[in-house]
Amino acid sequence: MSVEKIKSMVHDLACMLVDEPGKIKIIEEERNNAIIVVISVAKNDVGKVIGKNGQTAKALRALVNAASTRMGKKVLLEIRE
Amino acid sequence: MIEKKKNTNKPSLVEATGTSVEKALKKALKIMGTSINNVEVEIESAGQKGILGIFGARKAKVCIRRKEENNGAEEIVEEIARIILQSLGVNYRIFSDVMDDSVYINIETAGVDGLLIGRKGDTLNSLQHLVGRIVSKKMGGYKRIILDVGGYLKNRYNIIRKKAHKAAERARNTGKDVGLEAMKSSERRIAHIELTNEEDISTYTVGSGELRKVFVALVRGKNKGKSSDKRS
Known about the structure:
The structure holds 2 protein chains of 2 kinds. By secondary structure, chain A is an alpha+beta fold. Chain A has helices spanning about 1-15, 45-50, 55-70, and strands at about 25-30, 35-40, 75-80. Chain A has a 3-stranded mixed sheet. In chain A, helix 1 (about 1-15) packs antiparallel against helix 3 (about 55-70). Chain A is globular, with a radius of gyration of 12 Å. The termini of chain A are far apart. Chain B is about 45% helix and about 25% strand. Chain B has helices spanning about 1-10, 20-30, 70-90, 115, 120-140, 150-175, 185-195, 225; strands at about 15-20, 40-45, 60-65, 90-100, 100-110, 145-150, 180, 200-205, 215-220. Chain B is elongated and about 85 Å long. Chains A and B meet through helix 1 and helix 3 of A and helix 3 and helix 5 of B.
């Protein structure tokens, strides 16, 4: 249930970063005891979510990390086209 | 000519023409690089289609004015804080203030300050980056925003100011250059600014990336002979 909250947080933040918020999709995968939140955005928006030197991606991951430590689970963030 | 304005600075007022009011408005918004929510619109002339779109056609003209900027930034930060803190499930309060040339926004949370600040302020730095990105996208211009959590930055900046003065004192006493600890760019900025008022002290930086340090040096003044023994 709390993973849903992380997903909605990532979704809402990404919406504010990209040009085509309608194309954002968030799915959830599980691998090696870790939950992976996968965000896919429009082709032209990938760079905006990643940012210069991965700065923006790093920031999003930091927030996902902060939220996941609070609920005691390992959650990773992946960005796809 | 309007195109030039786009690159030189962020215009607060833009006029544009087009074959319809809608097109003119779209053009004006593009020049300002913002969305309809951030501006006040004034239609100066509605335009006329004319016969066959050629004879007697008059172009539509609109004028848009950017809304008050500070409020915009605060609202956006509030929105971001709401998104993040609701997903963490904690209560929070937001205070904002104007500091010199920037907007200072402090978020106080119920018990997760440390989580949002991170090790040495890393998470806070990330937050700051995100907020900067989103604000500049939504408002179409750069605005210096200092985002703080639980007064952490204010505290940190005060410590840096004190350390800078101590280093200046040591430089005066020993005549040697005194290095401060390695700091982030925003923190080095505070150290540099703090010592600009001290006329006998100059500052410079050495190193790159995480290891970049501010050095505090005594200006040897008119005594040219002595200034040549500067260590590197």
